[in-house]
Amino acid sequence: MSHRKHEVYEKDKGKCRYCGKRLSIKNHGKTGSRGAWQIDHSRSRRNQGTDHLNNLAAACVACNQEKGGRNARAFKAELRARGVDVPTRKKKGFLARLLGL
Q1: Integer Cα distance of 55 and 33 in angstroms
Q2: pLDDT in tens, 21-55
Q3: Which residue in 41, 44, 38, 66 sits closest to 54, CA to CA?
Q4: Which one of 19, 53, 77, 94 has the fewest CB atoms closer than 10 angstroms to its CB?
Q5: Using CB atoms within 10 A of its CB, is residue 73 exposed (0-12), middle (13-18) or buried (19+)?
Q6: All structural domains of the chain
Q7: pTM of this prediction?
């Protein structure tokens, strides 16, 4: 597995950024497998999104396909409007990041 895939998986704690489903690190790109996932571009490359880690997210296949080329914020808003409990990422404060907490 590439280093980048591992970074994205760890960044999202092995869960889909959109629905919170548990993902399997072994099943990246294996559609139909339990815990299958893909790397999603929060801002799509079509909309000038980059491959920088801060623009990448782990997403289950269903969410990534449904999201399509929309940006992550718009997709999350649609999910919330349908009553889906979208997980939130808590940002660490400056001191926590500095100390590696």
Answers
A1: 25
A2: 999 999 999 999 999 999 999 998 888 889 999 99
A3: 41
A4: 94
A5: exposed
A6: 3-99 (1.10.30)
A7: 0.80
